[in-house]
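Weekly sync notes, structure subgroup
Attendees: PM, AL, DS (notes)

Item 1: joint prediction request from the bench team. They want all two components modeled as one assembly rather than separately. Inputs as received:
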Amino acid sequence: MVSIKTMDLVKRFGNVVALDRVSLNIKHGEFFTLLGPSGCGKTTFLRSIAGFELVDEGRIFFDEDDVTYVPPHKRNTGMVFQNYALWPHMTVYDNIAYGLRVRKLPKDEIDRRVKWALKLVHMEGLENRTPHQLSGGQQQRVALARVLVIQPKVLLLDEPLSNLDAKLRIEMRAEIRRLQRELGITTIYVTHDQEEAMSISDKMAIMNRGKIMQVGDPIDIYFHPKNSFVADFIGQGTFIEGEVVDIDDFLEVELESGLGRVKAVPSRNDLDIDVGDKVLITIRPESFSLNPIDNSNRFHIHVYHVSFLGNVKRIQGSSNDKRFLVDADPMANINPDEDITVYAPYKLTLAIKI
Amino acid sequence: MSSLTARIVKEVNELRWHFDALNWVQLLSVLTVFTFFLILPVLTIVQSSFIYNGKISLYWFQHILQDPLYLPWKGVEGRFFDIIEYSTQQGKQVLIFVEGLDFGIILNSLFVASMTTIFSTLIGFVLAFIFARYKFFGDEILRIALLAPLLSTPFVGAIGIKKMITSEGVLNTLFVDLLRVMPFRIEVTGISAVILVQTLLFYPITFLNIYTSIINIDPSLEEQAENMGASGFYLFRTVTLPLSLPGIEAGALLVFILSIEDLGTPIVFRGSNADKLMPVYIFRNMFTPTGSIKGDATALSLILLLISATIFVVLRRYISLRRYAMLTKGGIWRPRRKKLRFSVSVFVYIICIFILLVALLPHIGVLLLAFAGEWPSGQLLPTYYTLRNFYKLFTEPGVLRSIINSVVYASVATVLIIVLGVSAAYLVSRVKVRGMELLDTLVTLPIAIPGIIIATGFFLVYLTTPLSPLIWGAPLLIMSYTVRKFPFTVRAVFAGLEQVDKSLEESAINIGASRTRVFFTITLPLIFINILAGGMLSFIYSMSEVSTGIVIGDANHNDAPMTWKMYDMLFKGFGGTFVAAAMGVMLMLLQFIMIVGSNLLLRKRAVALIGI
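Output from the run, pasted for the record:
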């Protein structure tokens, strides 16, 4: 187990910059997730850690060791591929034993450790199957066992759940987290599914166009986005631009499109917002209330769509052509074409500098 | 300066990261073989073309460009056809003698190659379109039967068809003497006969290439066009034709190159203006009386090389290892094929069966010759049949030896091709370093280099070395087979590699296996079938190699391969043709087994594979 540190990684593919000065610190035993839209560079980052991509600039450290030019087979990472990449010409046993045979361990030691790995992923008794005789979930378990058995310094998971159906995905998500906790192994997980990322990670990094947009724990990222990309990418919300006109206990923001003034708080304490700055006002759907509350901003909106989501009723409406997303009580009696008033507490009206 | 040092350190690090010891061995061995047995001979031809009396000079080119032998300075000679009247015991007869005009050696070659390309492309396109777009009873069998000329081994087609189309040949005997449906005889020879034979030999190549590119057109593209109101010829002109153009162009260019370098066909029509084609002329006139290579032969070689290299550069847009992979990967969707109305399908049958009959003429001729005891001209069929010709394969002095020679050379060459071919394909497919495209070009290059040029180059380079073909024929023949048949095999391997998901290899590297170990334990087992199929193809292609075989065979009869022996027997007079035909039948049988075998191994993956 190691900590991983990258310094200013740059990787170009032709004119495309896949990694643009990526610096990250991943601690011992941490479950770290890279989240971003497809093509944002997250898989390239993972492959650079594994050593399959040679970065054009920057350095990669495992603890104190510079591994930037260490070839992939000497890095001792355990990577699980999106398609599992099980070797079709070998049995489950041979697949798992491969890395141990490479390390020239004695036969009984190999046997002992393969058995241990099979037990770890609940696949005892299936060692003589070939990969095409396994279901998707079983293949996934074998792929995990194959890398865990060599006791890698770091576990690298590249969208490992994307080929599974919805129910199995949730089951395996918990399974992966259990294994990670049990073994205490540093893990980097790549996904484009924000719900998956939120539910599984100790810490996550949001990436876009090769750049790290924000690093933090899931709660921090959801409630305190650092910039408009993160605010927009994570969760849903109502987004309106405006300009800061005054600062006292709250920020006083003049909204565009003649929506008037609102009071807001900086999304994060470290955002340095001054009078005259352009900001993006972000309000999460669940921050709204249909009933008047103290210290809140008021909006009159025209409802054009109401969808019942089970736990909430989600109202889509507009005011002066700005789109509003409001969650209401599932039993609330709201219908399209109504005009309603909604309230958002100052403390939950977030301002992000743009 | 320090930034330069940093840059060098970085480049070295990157190179070390991309290349492991195995890759270096692979790269260096491929480069060594290609340097010594392709680049060096070709460069030597270039060099000696510009040397006259020990000085750098354009003498040979001036000589060639001024001599009416090469270019038609004294006007075009001969006539397209002659009508000859003569009397026989049956009365007056008319013979239409078709030989073709003589434009001088250089233009003759260009003319033959152009005509062969045009005819093969037309036939190939018509057939490809019919089979790719329509369903009718027996279409699968007909389609495979129409590929039969691919089984043609050197000389065989030409020997067979020559027996058919001379004035006393089988066709004239049948239609003039027996059926009396034709009032005159036709004899086709010389350049015209070469065009005829080559068209029949090469149309399957355009057919296969065009067929593959049509069935690989995503049906939804045409459906979308129909959806927007296009139909019939408009749809064909605006969508189907443009999308199949790469296949058409690749097939046509390949035929052009094969035609212009073909030595086996024109050599059979000895004594006509077919002697005035570049490869034949070089072959007949390359040696001075003292045994060295003539300057005008090397200069003519260089001109031939420039022509085929130009075509290759164009072809290169379409033919790289990658393109082969793409061609063989496609076809996951169901191609659009309509059922033909009965009346139309009768018409299609007539076309296909006519082409098939004409295409099979050489094969029928060769089979009859191989079993013939005696076959006087003017006779429809041999007077009696015998197995004696096959018996002679094992008893006639020299014949058996040449067969054994060929088997040995082809086997060694196959091993070399596989080892080096797998290496080259692996490097091009897996090692992402700048300059790997050059390796791809290099290993595809032999397609562009006429065999006669390799042969000439080998003599120039190695005549005075221990590898001299006069001392020992084997090494140079093996190396010539290896280099010349390399591209056709390496692509079978490359196609296999492209189908192996890279993550299968990366996952092994990830858990600690070196690239070398991964290569042997993961990669090779997964592409074993492709290697086997590729090996079978290289064996049979090597057995059938003509140009270097007959040049080196002519210089060293003991070490000559069977293609030289066939050539030798062909002009030996009494019975020689029959034995040559029997050797041809044996080669055809071997070819049939190998091609069917490799196709069975590759199954659907093989669509474009046998199309050379």
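Discussion: The domain at 19-57+393-612 of chain B is CATH 1.10.3720.10 (MetI-like fold).
Action: AL to compare against the crosslinking data before next sync.
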